[in-house]
Amino acid sequence: MVKEEPPSTSKDLQELQRRVSLLIASVQSNSKVVAFMKSPVGQYLDRHPFLTLTLLVFAAVSAVPVGFFLLLVVLTSLAAFVGVILLEGLVIAVGGFSLLCVLCGLGFMSLIMSGTIVVSYMVVSSLINYWISPRLWTQHNSNRDC
Asked: How many C-alpha atoms does 75 have within 13 Å on its Cβ side?
């Protein structure tokens, strides 16, 4: 009781074989493939099909780990960039607040020093005017006339 394959399966396989042959023919007629196959590397790989298959399998299998590594590099770089921006923003904010405190302190000190200088000027000016008053000059000049 061996089951015979229905005739449609045979036709499907022939159609698949025809499509694969067309695909291979289109790849082999591509100008870049033709140029590569004429190069020394292409001719070497054409003479050594096992090495070609090994390189093809290696490239296909290593694409996923290399892709994950590159994704890790990009995400790490972005995280570091964002971290640097946040850290720089924090440093600028703390520095700006410190500068604001220092400038407010200097403004207060300038106000106190200006007040002290004005009060000192007024006191010294009043004392000089009191000590050397015009009436003393007149008394001093009148004593000389005698």
From this structure: 6
Cα-based angle 29, 62, 17 (whole degrees, multiple of 5): 35
Give the CA count within 13 Å in the CB-facing half-sphere of 105.
6
Residues 137, 138, 141, 146: what is their CA dihedral angle, to the nearest 10 degrees? -150
Residue 122 predicted with pLDDT over 90: yes
pLDDT, tens digit, for every residue of 67-89? 999 999 999 999 999 988 998 99
Distance, CA of 5 to CA of 133 (rounded, Å):
137
d(CA 136, CA 51): 120
Q: Which residues contact residue 46 at a Cβ distance below 8 angstroms, ignoring those fewer than 6 apart?
A: 37, 52
pLDDT per residue over 42-60, tens digit each?
999 889 988 888 888 999 8
User: Token pair for residue 62?
Assistant: 């290593």
CA of 128: how far to CAs of 4, 85, 124, 135, in Å? 134, 62, 6, 13
